[in-house]
User: Fold this.
Amino acid sequence: MIRLNNIVASYTTQRGTVNAVDGVNLEIPDGIILGIAGESGCGKSTLMKVIYGDVSSPLSLPSGSVEYGIRDEYGDEVTSKNIQKQWFRRISYIPQSSMSSLNPVVRIRQQFVDFLDPKQNKAQVLDKVRSYVQQLGLPPESIDSYPHQLSGGMRQRIMVAMATFFQPDVILADEPTTALDVVVQKSILLLLMDLQEKMKNTIIFVSHDMGVHYQITHKMLIMYAAKAVEYGDSETIFTQPLHPYTRMLINSLPTIGDEHTREGISGRPPSLWENLQGCRFAARCPLATELCRSQEPAFTEYRPGHFAACHYAEKQQEASEGAL
Amino acid sequence: MKTILKTERLNKVYQLGNFPRNVKVNALNDVNLSIESDEPVIISVVGESGSGKTTLAKVILRLVEPTSGQVMIQDRVIVSEKGRMKPTKTEFLSTVQPIFQNPFEAFSRYRTVDSYLYETATRVKQLGKVEAITTIEEALASVGLEYKDVKGKYPNQFSGGELQRVSIARALIPRPGIIVADEPVSMIDASRRMIIINQFLSLKQEYRTSILYITHDLATAYYISDYIAVMNRGSIVEFGKARQVLADPQHSYTKLLLDSIPTTKKKWER
Assistant:
């Protein structure tokens, strides 16, 4: 189980410091796909960086820690302090754009063995890599080419292959398919789901596309303005959301065959530079009252395993259950 | 019935690589589209990356010269081989206006945003100073912005959605026959995407402008368009009324595209 204890992550800039993630508490069970959704600037990528342990200037972690529930080769508990040693072996990262993540002047096979122990036999490992990329639907020769010789979908598959080659316990995927078109996107997502089923590891998946979340995730975390606002099983989040923001996010998407008028969520999230009071979504929320503007709602468990931060979550719950 | 958009045997061949190993790529392969209507319409062009949809937009916007064929908008030739019967730039810009994918790239960082609006009003529409300002105010109001909030500001002072709305307002100033919008919402956050999409619907009525909406997002295409054209490898494989095409796709490629969309209604078969 991965446990996030009151994570506060801040960026230091010329203007001062700003908290991009502000007090997130979470328990992620092993062997699931967790989806993180929210609009740009809500802190989802920063949270990923913290989980990956890639905390370096201008990002800092003034408080909070991550416990991964695994032990390293010396038997020590792995936390956010020493996770860097486990990169690629126990935890790996699939970045958003494969275009800029592969070194353009080095052949792909060289990039595969970059992180190897010098003791290990290169040729043997490369043979394994070749058979592994073949399993992922790439020609084995593709690792002999330079990144620019492959298409976007193939490069993204190479990134998936690199991230999963050592069968890590945790895979972090930050919008791995946004740069791809729908046909390729589907094949990459199905590939990730298959790999997760085989290896039984945890995938944390960031995307702003609620459709993608519905298709692949088991649990979901919704973030808004640096705070976690809802966390629970994807099935319940999509059918009976507790937070009005989640409901508006789901309802803002048009679907084929559905003639309803769709409204976007007007307004924009509050600036994190301001001294924020009360619920951060209050300014855009149709249900907001004086209570919301003055008092910040706590992140509470309303149903077993279903958390939300909203004063009116119970009312929403009754309404959604009444509608069923 | 007026011709809103008509392309005749439109071809564009790109040469890739150098002699002797150069490859010819048919980005547009005999594209024949014909839309006639008295009412303004929204036409969507969908397809995966590399299907030629952006090349089609560029040819219509005269950013790329076609290898052969011609384009007619509002019963007049806009684009033709070697520029025959080509209208002047001012005439062209008052018939066709673009909206690009990334508004931060469309506007220069070193110029105020309202200078673009002003120049479109004075040069393309050839209005006087006072009239230009009223036209700008009107166009901005129709996308839900106020002139005083835009005046004197640089692109980095806007959010992506606001700046995209400014670029829509700019395109509306000459009251063009057709607006070519190349992926206008793909850079905009999902929660605010629908605001822009709904604006296209209301502007179609208010300004009586047709819109050529180029996208890879079939869901929004279904939501706003009257006609839809599915492109694959430079050819239009399916064309028709949007509801009809997406409810009952005939071509296997359209079916594949529809099948690949992640929806929140039905899970993929595995």
About this structure: Chain B touches chain A through 35 residues (CB under 8 Å). Residues 190-207 of chain B form the longest helix (18 residues). Chain B has eleven helices and ten strands. The longest strand of chain B covers residues 3-16.
